[in-house]
Amino acid sequence: MSEISKDKASRLLKKRGSVSSVSSPDIKMKEIRSRAKDSVSTVSYVDEPTHHDDASRPAVHMENTYQLGPDRCFPVDAVNHILKDVLTNYLQEEKYEPELCRQMTKTIAEVVKARVKDLMIPRYKLVVIIHIGQLNNQSLHIGSRCLWDDANDTFASFVFRNTSLFALATVYAVYLE
Amino acid sequence: MEEYQPHHEEIGFNADEAHNIVKECIDAILGGVDYNQNNVNQWTAAIVEQSLTHLVKLGKTYKYIVTCAVMQKSGSGLHTASSCFWDTTSDGTCTVRWENQTMNCIVNVFAIAIIL
């Protein structure tokens, strides 16, 4: 099951990956530098759509729906459950390895996004963030602040730990006004 | 005679602007200090709050999500990935990585447009 989703995730990334070729030389350089210094590699894979593509596409003007709030609230408990499910299934038996975890973070992000999308909550935009790190008696602090509409927007998060690694998954759901 | 129309209708999120704002905030708070367990809490809070305040001052109609991860340098690895379901023409993201001799700091900014 994980193989299929890994394939799907890598195919999805490859499809969009062709657009991000501009950023990859920088990333490769950074990797070499960080290995030489023997420090933590802080490279992040950014899959951004190129901006000139977006500028040629005119921004879509939507008509008023006169709708003040969402029909259905975002089900935080269901999403917490999904996060717990996905993280436990993928990481229960794994040991921390750089290559494996690099692939795993991307895969898990895609899988979580797909599952939350399957809940079919209309008019909600999603941001899924996954952190996977090695457990080494080091200290790590992660904080976040959001500027949004408290009545409609929300988030769900889950922390998973095993003997050699920890994983933090957060899903932010933002209502499209 | 043509009047000069200022380009006030910017399409999409300006990642460079956000990058500069956040980098300035981090430099102001973490510049020249070493990792300190007691202060990390207030550092992350301060970085995130200041970045958010400066982003809001831009006056654009965006909802913002700012996350900050501060980690002590100990040779252990950290991987971060994010996946977003949104409108790519109007929404965007920006990540700022910063480090000194004792710690690493990663700040993510996600901006989601509000349609008025």
Automatic annotation (TrEMBL), chain A:
Residue ranges, compositional bias (Basic and acidic residues)? 1-10
Annotated region (Disordered), positions in chain = 1-26
Any one Gene Ontology molecular-function term assigned to this protein's record: dynein intermediate chain binding
Q: Which domain of life is it from?
A: Eukaryota
Q: Which GO terms describe its biological process?
A: microtubule-based movement
List the InterPro entries hit by this protein, alphabetically. Tctex-1-like, Tctex-1-like_sf
GO cellular component term, pick one: cytoplasmic dynein complex
The family database entries (CDD domains) matched by this protein are listed as:
DLC-like_TCTEX1D1
Q: Which Gene3D superfamilies match?
A: Tctex-1
**Signal peptide (from-to):** none
As for family, the record states: Belongs to the dynein light chain Tctex-type family.
Q: What is this protein called?
A: Dynein light chain Tctex-type family member 5
Species of provenance? Vombatus ursinus
- Organism classification, top ranks? Eukaryota, Metazoa, Chordata, Craniata, Vertebrata
Gene name of the encoded protein = DYNLT5
Automatic annotation (TrEMBL), chain B:
Q: What's in the keyword line of the UniProt record?
A: Cell cycle, Cell division, Centromere, Chromosome, Cytoplasm, Cytoskeleton, Dynein, Kinetochore, Microtubule, Mitosis, Motor protein, Nitration, Nucleus, Transport
Recorded hits in InterPro entries, A to Z, give:
Tctex-1-like (IPR005334), Tctex-1-like_sf (IPR038586)
A single Gene Ontology CC term: microtubule
GO molecular function terms noted in the UniProt entry: dynein intermediate chain binding
What the entry lists under CDD domains is as follows: DLC-like_DYNLT3
Question: What does the entry give for GO biological process?
Answer: cell division; microtubule-based movement
Where mainly found? nucleus
Location comes to: Chromosome, Centromere, Kinetochore; Cytoplasm, Cytoskeleton; Nucleus
Which Gene3D superfamilies does this chain map to?
Tctex-1
What family does the entry list?
Belongs to the dynein light chain Tctex-type family.
- PANTHER family recorded: DYNEIN LIGHT CHAIN TCTEX-TYPE 3 (PTHR21255:SF20), T-COMPLEX-ASSOCIATED-TESTIS-EXPRESSED 1/ DYNEIN LIGHT CHAIN (PTHR21255)
Assembly, in brief, is: Homodimer. The cytoplasmic dynein 1 complex consists of two catalytic heavy chains (HCs) and a number of non-catalytic subunits presented by intermediate chains (ICs), light intermediate chains (LICs) and light chains (LCs); the composition seems to vary in respect to the IC, LIC and LC composition. The heavy chain homodimer serves as a scaffold for the probable homodimeric assembly of the respective non-catalytic subunits. The ICs and LICs bind directly to the HC dimer and the LCs assemble on the IC dimer. DYNLT1 and DYNLT3 compete for association with dynein IC (DYNC1I1 or DYNC1I2).
Function summary: Acts as one of several non-catalytic accessory components of the cytoplasmic dynein 1 complex that are thought to be involved in linking dynein to cargos and to adapter proteins that regulate dynein function. Cytoplasmic dynein 1 acts as a motor for the intracellular retrograde motility of vesicles and organelles along microtubules. Probably binds BUB3 as part of transport cargo. Required for the efficient progression through mitosis.
Q: What is this protein called?
A: Dynein light chain Tctex-type 3
